[in-house]
């Protein structure tokens, strides 16, 4: 059977780093509160010349370089984002153009913080169906542009950035020993759509709008939803938590990550944490964390890696990859 094997990983961050202390002069908040409640110490904030497309392009180029490939080798781009450069066309098409590609096809996916997990599962389906041979799967976000900078309950949580994977279709044996995407589980439930949303849009207000969140409500649901899809993925692949080499969760809040890992019986030393450095970068958080852990030598070929995310919608999902 066809497997989607990881060939390369890359990321890109805006130049400007904003530490928690910078908020202390703007809002009634503190470095202590932010660190204790979330684990976040800093985030990167895009300047005017840095956009979802430019960050996504830079992450894609880094992943291609890591794979030893060029844009000519790619025939599919799936971009996970909720902060596109324009309402349309898809920012994926702009990235395709920036990479100098006039072949293949590119489209955006919108599943908010779960976007990258959805995008990996979607690219995997396309590769296994024979619609493409090599895919760039990108998560790129500029959430700083949709934050209400006077709302301390949301603006301290998010940051900007991008990460990307190159996936290549390759023949596998059909067992859990294969390299590549081994199993996935995706879910959504619109009952919760008003707990984390943007209060604008082309068809309603005609404006871009700002992010609104009932943090405590999201927090309450997060660990349960995350563990459900991971257990489903374990079941589909016929493995247990002990078989995992690495757990690379969405980086929204260290307390949610710790609670999920504990509930699943995943040892602390297997958990990749980057929320302290990047904040919550929505669809970019998982590939940014992957890039950190691959480049520092933690994730290696043959490792069993579980990706997971949960976010607005609600949407949630998990993907198991043999690196
Ligand atoms: O990526 C998509 C998924 N999103 C998430 O996973 C986010 C999920 N939610 C969370 O991570 C947490 O709920 C937050 C970090 C957003 C908040 O932490 P919490 O422990 O749930 O705090 P809370 O909302 O219950 O607020 C506790 C107190 C409140 O004051 P009172 O009502 O107890 O007097 C807030 O007004 O903290 C206050 N507060 C702040 N204080 C200082 C809220 N934001 C801040 C702030 N600085 N920035």
Automatic annotation (TrEMBL):
Gene Ontology MF: a single term: 3-oxoacyl-[acyl-carrier-protein] synthase activity
Coiled coil: none
Location of region: ACP-binding: 251-255
Pathway in which the depicted protein is active: Lipid metabolism; fatty acid biosynthesis
InterPro entries registered for this protein in UniProt: ACP_syn_III_C (IPR013747), ACP_syn_III_N (IPR013751), FabH (IPR004655), Thiolase-like (IPR016039)
Keywords: Acyltransferase, Cytoplasm, Fatty acid biosynthesis, Fatty acid metabolism, Lipid biosynthesis, Lipid metabolism, Multifunctional enzyme, Transferase
Homology family: Belongs to the thiolase-like superfamily. FabH family.
Annotated function: Catalyzes the condensation reaction of fatty acid synthesis by the addition to an acyl acceptor of two carbons from malonyl-ACP. Catalyzes the first condensation reaction which initiates fatty acid synthesis and may therefore play a role in governing the total rate of fatty acid production. Possesses both acetoacetyl-ACP synthase and acetyl transacylase activities. Its substrate specificity determines the biosynthesis of branched-chain and/or straight-chain of fatty acids.
Subunit structure: Homodimer.
Domain remark in the UniProt entry: The last Arg residue of the ACP-binding site is essential for the weak association between ACP/AcpP and FabH.
PANTHER family in UniProt: 3-OXOACYL-[ACYL-CARRIER-PROTEIN] SYNTHASE 3, BETA-KETOACYL-[ACYL-CARRIER-PROTEIN] SYNTHASE III
Protein name: Beta-ketoacyl-[acyl-carrier-protein] synthase III
Species of origin: Pseudaminobacter soli (ex Zhang et al. 2022)
């Amino acid at each position: 059977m066809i497997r989607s094997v990881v060939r390369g990983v890359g990321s890109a961050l805006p130049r400007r780093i904003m530490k928690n202390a910078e908020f202390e002069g703007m809002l009634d908040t503190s470095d202590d509160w932010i660190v204790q409640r979330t684990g976040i110490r800093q985030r990167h904030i895009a300047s005017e010349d840095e956009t979802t497309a430019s960050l996504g392009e830079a992450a894609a180029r880094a992943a291609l370089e890591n794979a030893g490939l060029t844009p000519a080798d790619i025939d599919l781009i799936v971009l996970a984002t909720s902060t596109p450069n324009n309402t349309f066309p898809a920012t994926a098409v702009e990235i395709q153009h920036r990479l100098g590609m006039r072949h293949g096809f590119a489209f955006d996916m919108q599943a908010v913080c779960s976007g990258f997990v959805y995008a990996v599962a979607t690219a995997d389906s396309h590769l296994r169906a024979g619609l493409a041979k090599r895919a760039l799967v990108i998560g790129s976000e500029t959430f700083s542009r949709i934050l209400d900078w006077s709302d301390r309950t949301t603006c301290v949580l998010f940051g900007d950035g991008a990460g990307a994977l190159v996936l290549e279709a390759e023949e596998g044996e059909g067992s859990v020993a294969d390299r590549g995407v081994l199993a996935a589980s995706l879910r959504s439930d619109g009952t919760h759509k008003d707990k984390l949303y943007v209060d604008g849009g082309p068809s309603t207000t005609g404006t871009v709008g700002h992010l609104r969140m009932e943090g405590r409500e999201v927090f309450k649901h997060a660990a349960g939803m995350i563990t459900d899809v991971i257990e489903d993925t374990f079941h589909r692949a016929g493995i247990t938590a002990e078989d995992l080499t690495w757990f690379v969760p969405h980086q929204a809040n260290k307390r949610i990550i710790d609670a999920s890992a504990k509930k699943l019986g995943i040892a602390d030393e297997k958990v990749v944490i980057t929320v302290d450095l990047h904040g919550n970068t929505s669809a970019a958080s998982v590939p940014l964390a992957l890039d950190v852990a691959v480049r520092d030598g933690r994730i290696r070929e043959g490792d069993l890696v579980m990706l997971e995310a949960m976010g607005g919608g609600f949407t949630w999902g998990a993907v198991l990859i043999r690196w």
